[in-house]
Amino acid sequence: MDLTPLLSWACIVFTVGMFSTGLTDLRKMRESKSADNIQFLPFLTTCLNNLGWLFYGTLKMDHTIIVVNVIGALLQILYIVMYFLYTKQKRLVMLQTLAAAAVLICGWLYFTTFLTEGDARLHQLGLTCSVVTVSMYLSPLTDLVAIIRSGNVQVLSFPLTVATFFTSTAWVLYGLQLNDYYITVPNTPGIFTSLIRFYLFWKFASTNQSLPSYKPLHV
């Protein structure tokens, strides 16, 4: 039985759902007319990651990867523009955005000018995107260590944790179905980090019941 179409839809639905969690931050910015207490770099790095995977999906002619990352990139661009409108640190945001654009242009020139062979370009691009994705999944580990020490899970978003778990699982199964380890391997850490978060919610939930509800910040 070919599960590829089912897994493809699962990847699209879960991933778009995960990207849409940023709409919460967008609503906060519009209501408060401020970008305080909202992180900018996750929007920027996710946008770069989306564009990298979009290029990979285009070279591989994988419509699932293309659709997901077109939607993801457009959402991240929306978040970036809105953040710029409401932040007080416009110069810093502009410099970070220009630096990201420079990295993107250099990467584009490298993969389109110096790597002309299709297979070599696809493999190197897949490896690059995999490394970036793994680093994004593992970057919150330092925050998780701090949460374990403090016993306070209020800074974790449970909906985002659920979305990350199902998204990572769907992509791992999709990658296995296609025998594409550039899809399977980088999404595996997402499953493990989500399981760690679930454990933290279970372990510290009772100790946090008397505290105010957690704010759905990205961790």
Give your account of this protein's structure.
The chain is mainly α. Helix content is 79%, strand content 0%. It is built from 9 helices and no strands. Helix 3 packs antiparallel against helix 4 (63-86) and helix 7 (141-150) packs parallel to helix 9 (181-204). The longest helix has 25 residues, at 90-114. It is globular, with a radius of gyration of 18 Å. The relative contact order is 0.14.
Task: Give a summary of the structure in a few sentences.
This protein has helices at residues 4-19, 22-32, 41-60, 63-86, 90-114, 118-138, 141-150, 158-178, 181-204. It is built from 9 helices and no strands. Helix 7 (141-150) packs parallel to helix 9 (181-204).
Mean pLDDT across the residues is 87
Percentage of residues in DSSP E strands:
under 5%
**Model regions low in confidence, pLDDT < 50 over at least 5 residues:** 210-219
Strand-and-helix sequence, N→C? HHHHHHHHH
The main sheet comes to:
none
Estimated radius of gyration: 18 Å
Q: Give the tally of β-strands.
A: 0
Shape: globular
Cα distance spanning the termini: 38 Å
Structural class: mainly alpha
Range of helix content: over 70%
How many individual helices? 9
